[in-house]
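Action item from last week, closing it out:
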Amino acid sequence: MKELVVISGKGGTGKTSIVSSFAALANPAVLADCDVDAADLHLILDPTVVREENFSGGNRAEILQDRCTACGLCHELCRFDAIIPNASANGNPTYRVDPIACEGCGVCAHFCPEQAIDFSPAVNGKWFVSDTRFGPMVHAKLGIAEENSGKLVAHVRTHAKQIAQEKQMDLILIDGPPGTGCPVIASITGADLILAVTEPTLSGLHDLNRIFKLARHFDIPMLVCVNKWDLNPEITEKIELQARNNQVGVCGRIRYDRSVTEAQLKVQSVIEHGNSPAAEDIMKVWEKVSGKIRQN
């Protein structure tokens, strides 16, 4: 079983369009959308959800008012200022937990003399297993203002691997999150190959250097693809030179092509939409990527 992770230094570089096209070319494969903060692979693949589960990445405190004696110990011990004093109708102090400020450390519940603080698992989001026209897909949606996206990414990858083993499928295609933070680290750790999709801008050049350092730190083979390269050939040359200087292979360039947007409007991958310059370029990139992952 091989894991290919497609990532980018920033959002909007076209990695999801490339992943959906790879799914069409690799058919079948297990798909995993690990951009749990802003998942959008489902917008192209139009999945049918067959399983939906809540995700809990930690616990959250809640004061049980019928047990609370308002001793104030939780307020004194909380290092995150998440316990807020209130005045009740009779003038006696009461306390409540600010769910935004609460870090779920559990100190208040542990030391409460009246056991008046409920410390139950918090629902941080949902994860799904779906059927698509290119194979099974595991994806998720993190709740608004919720944390633990790295844990949710790991959860998605774990279930994608389980499905691959059950169905004896030898490839997992992962649409990773942008950037280099915790969700990206959770997406690439232990993967067989990273494809970094960038665009010919100065920010793309800068962000790619951060990805090089990340891949080198985790000792994961990596390839680079420049999307919409013809919008700035000069920066494209600099990006490819930077890749070679970091001993990273360049697997191709993809031209700017309006057919990519047309395909999205029709809920299709670029490959499905028909012959176009972008589809031709993506097929060439896939040949090099699939060849590289078979070597690893």
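Closing note: The chain has two domains: 2-56+125-295, 58-122.
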